[in-house]
Amino acid sequence: MGRRLLLPHTRRLMLFLRPMRYSASATATATAGSLRDPLHVCVVGSGPAGFYTAEKMLKGREGVRVDIIDRLPTPFGLVRSGVAPDHPETKIVVNQFSRVAANPRCSFFGNVTLGSDLSLSELRKTYDVVVLAYGAESDRSFGIPGEDLRGIHSAREFVWWYNGHPDMCNLAPDLTNTDSAVVLGQGNVALDVARILLRCTTELASTDIADYALDALRSSTIRKVYLVGRRGPVQAACTAKELREILGLKNVNVYIKEADLATSPADKEEMRNSRIKRRVYELLSKAATVHQENNDNDRKELHFVFFRKPTKFLPSEDGSTVGAMELEKTLLKDDGATGKQVAVGTGEFEELKCGIVLKSIGYKSLPIEGLSFDKYRGVVPNLRGRVLSSESETATVEPGLYVVGWLKRGPTGIVATNLHCAEETVDSILEDDRKGLFTDPSGPKRQGRRGLLEILEQKNARYVPFDGWEKIDTKEKADGELKNKPREKITRWNELLEAAREG
Ligand code: NAP
């Protein structure tokens, strides 16, 4: 399905689905049970989208019981493994999520993987409502030559590594074979990874960065970071606050070519329509004119490279690792259909030497068995959070199945964006509940938590309850205190599971 068809198509679908889906509910409404009746809800994924959904469900429906499952033994998803260690204020939201978990009508089951410990169909037979909130745990790729060379990592892998995610604790990026790193993309994740590479390690030492990452950054030889964007400064995907922060790093000189700051009428129009773009452009323009101090050998360099499209990853001389990027110069053209300015190659190429590349062009959600998936957009097709059976015009609503967060709308937005996203999905659930769609007296009785526990026991799956996480939390905080850090994260699977049992 073409992208441009999506909006009109979605509207057509809504018109088509409403009468079809709810014709059955007209009779069901008459038999709908009281809102005090139990409603068994399972949320898959304990990041912000999952916890906001649980919170809204608990507030919005008296008899609801919410179970949150997560494949990690630890809750909070991207707040724990995505938010940068030097952004502690963004992590405060976990206090709110912990209060949700403490609600007697809510339970957490960590170390439970949908797809291997239990299937989607088992889950749907067990719960009245299943809400998928498992986010985006993979990466977009370029599909250009050399992408599998050593020394090339996705930003997600690098972020998971410095944040102590147990799947990436062995990544060991080599930060000592080069003085130059290239970051591809200019969104906030790109700024995060560039900032971590450039920031003084004395400043990082008092954050919750993983200890092995701090050690590696202390011995890093990287002095220059190139942030490469295929479009111009007006189109940089970062936001002003994050840009201001990286431009203000101590001991870092910033380089921006004056020529790249020239604006076209279309750029001016974009800035007129967006305060963020205007602010980002102003900050970059100002940074370009600041006198750079060169008298200190300790100063690192941040280079903004605009209008360059990656075309090849080139090997180092001995072929053992990445040695340079081949970039094609670009121009911006109105693509006609969307009115967006897109980058088109000029046929002029150049090389940028480097010893490590971090690809920061977006996260990607993964499909699971039994779930429809829009491969092009990397989301589950849905109508206001109600999962659709396919992307086609004849799609039907999957009863009792909902989606929220990055899996619903794609990998964009800050933590708080998930609050509105969760509200929309929960509104859909509550609307369906009021229509009696979950209380068909002739339908099977869902067991909820009891059923989940039976399945986990049959499969010998050892889950981590919320108080198991609290034991991990206590240990991490105690270990951190010894080093003047908010916490020292436990980064290995077996140690996490051990810590969850102890105490
Ligand atoms: P993003 O904001 O979508 O940025 C992706 C970047 O990759 C853009 O510069 C984009 O350029 C570029 N890109 C995509 N495909 C490309 C290709 N084929 N070739 C070259 N460049 C390509 O994604 P993100 O940085 O991963 O961030 C995800 C979300 O998390 C964002 O909403 C972000 O604001 C949020 N976040 C927020 C914070 C914070 O608030 N502190 C921190 C981290 C993340 P084009 O624009 O040309 O497509």
Describe the fold and architecture.
α6 crosses α7 (188-198) and α11 (265-273) packs across α12 (275-289). Residues 1-32 have low confidence and may be disordered. This protein has helices at 6-31, 48-60, 77-81, 93-102, 120-126, 155-162, 188-198, 201-204, 211-218, 240-247, 265-273, 275-289, 406-409, 417-434, 449-458, 466-482, 493-501; strands spanning 39-44, 64-69, 106-109, 129-132, 138-139, 152-154, 180-184, 224-228, 252-256, 300-305, 308-315, 322-334, 341-353, 356-359, 363-364, 382-383, 386-388, 397-403. The N and C termini lie far apart (54 Å). The protein contains 17 helices and 18 strands. The chain has two domains: 40-137 and 365-464, 3-Layer(aba) Sandwich (Rossmann fold), CATH 3.40.50.720; 141-361, FAD/NAD(P)-binding domain. It has a seven-stranded mixed beta sheet with strand order 3-2-1-4-18-17-16, sandwiched between helices. The protein has a six-stranded parallel beta sheet with strand order 6-14-7-8-10-9. A three-stranded antiparallel beta sheet has the order 11-12-13, with no helix packed on it. The protein is of the alpha/beta class and 503 residues long. The chain binds NADP nicotinamide-adenine-dinucleotide phosphate (NAP). NADP nicotinamide-adenine-dinucleotide phosphate binds at residues 142, 185-190, 192, 229-231, 235, 237, 239, 242, 360-363, 411-414.
Provide a short characterization of the protein structure.
NADP(+) binds at residues 186-189, 230-231, 242, 413. The chain is α/β, with parallel strands linked by helices.
